[in-house]
């Protein structure tokens, strides 16, 4: 069972729907791209989805002259990286590039060339975006988007690109490019937020009014796109199988992301339009609101999942996440206002605004009373909603155990899993196998629920006291988690008589 997490296949012929599926096998993932500990991370799994870019030739090779020319749109970013590299190499002994004296211009030119732009951007949206639909694809433009988010897309695209020397150099453990990019993006994020806070205070003092006013300013656009970049680069860096990077994630990056979401008020981000029935929703404003909502939800989800891998307490709480849940993918992926309006009509006039937050849904899952799927506060439940909900159940299990209250909480947690499964079956019964197969990591929600139930049984039987995973808070590698998953799998097989 747990091999669905331990050894995610690259080519899946049959979608995994049931809660106790047969074991998966095999993987042809590039070893630099896919370390053995990438479980739980939706942006790092399932290599071959359906192809939204049928005209893309992935083994296209740029010619020599193109590979040596840095894309002019990225030249300022490359210069900023070179300057930061020089500073870190001279002042920070822990920096991966501390032993070098100069920024590797040739590698930067190879990666950030014009020839690579279409390949790496398309690769990002073909693979990473399937598991982490954080960016608004129709709005992304390498020429006009914030440099930090373009940098993040280039690097995350390189994780899935066909292997060439420059691509392998980026992915290889010990390369300084990812930690350098991460440091650059997080410094830019802090600078953007600090500037935003100063502007907000000034406007309040001048009694100008709301934060967004009549529209989103360029400064705010840069800030939110930089936040998205931080989530992407940090997530990729966490997957690099580097204990030093994971230590930095635990001690600095995760706190910075959660703190940023709180400082910007994203924990309560909602759609702000009040539309009378029959009127049109302002698509541009909807995208701005939805961007903030998705940043909030993905920040919390990343915190919880990374905490689960290394057994560190989550910094974000379910109770504070009163933001709307992310909207339906059909709306988010609409290329223009006309497509957006068509998607709204197809899914119901009020579908552009979600009916509940994660906190509302979690309260319903653990409540004494249950009115079934029809009475659940969230309507049009998506696979992404299910991932957030089952992740919240894992958070409740983890917190209950950390404060020594798991035994009395087990009945309520079992009840929450039962109700989640009822919702999950209702969702999967109305979508076809191909849709589920191409839904990224979200199709593995059933296994994630199985894991929650297995953890409760493991603890109820007292076996958790013998598990190395639970012996300390914070591990250097996911080995302890892998061992725990194998133990749960073996226990499950023994109960089934296998």
Automatic annotation (TrEMBL):
<dbReference type="InterPro" id="IPR051059">
    <property type="entry name" value="VerF-like"/>
</dbReference>
<dbReference type="InterPro" id="IPR007219">
    <property type="entry name" value="XnlR_reg_dom"/>
</dbReference>
<dbReference type="GO" id="GO:0006351">
    <property type="term" value="P:DNA-templated transcription"/>
</dbReference>
<feature type="domain" description="Xylanolytic transcriptional activator regulatory">
    <location>
        <begin position="123"/>
        <end position="343"/>
    </location>
</feature>
<dbReference type="GO" id="GO:0008270">
    <property type="term" value="F:zinc ion binding"/>
</dbReference>
<keyword id="KW-0539">Nucleus</keyword>
<keyword id="KW-0677">Repeat</keyword>
<dbReference type="GO" id="GO:0000785">
    <property type="term" value="C:chromatin"/>
</dbReference>
<keyword id="KW-0863">Zinc-finger</keyword>
<dbReference type="GO" id="GO:0000981">
    <property type="term" value="F:DNA-binding transcription factor activity, RNA polymerase II-specific"/>
</dbReference>
<dbReference type="GO" id="GO:0000978">
    <property type="term" value="F:RNA polymerase II cis-regulatory region sequence-specific DNA binding"/>
</dbReference>
<dbReference type="GO" id="GO:0005634">
    <property type="term" value="C:nucleus"/>
</dbReference>
<protein>
    <recommendedName>
        <fullName>Xylanolytic transcriptional activator regulatory domain-containing protein</fullName>
    </recommendedName>
</protein>
<dbReference type="Pfam" id="PF04082">
    <property type="entry name" value="Fungal_trans"/>
</dbReference>
<keyword id="KW-0862">Zinc</keyword>
<keyword id="KW-0479">Metal-binding</keyword>
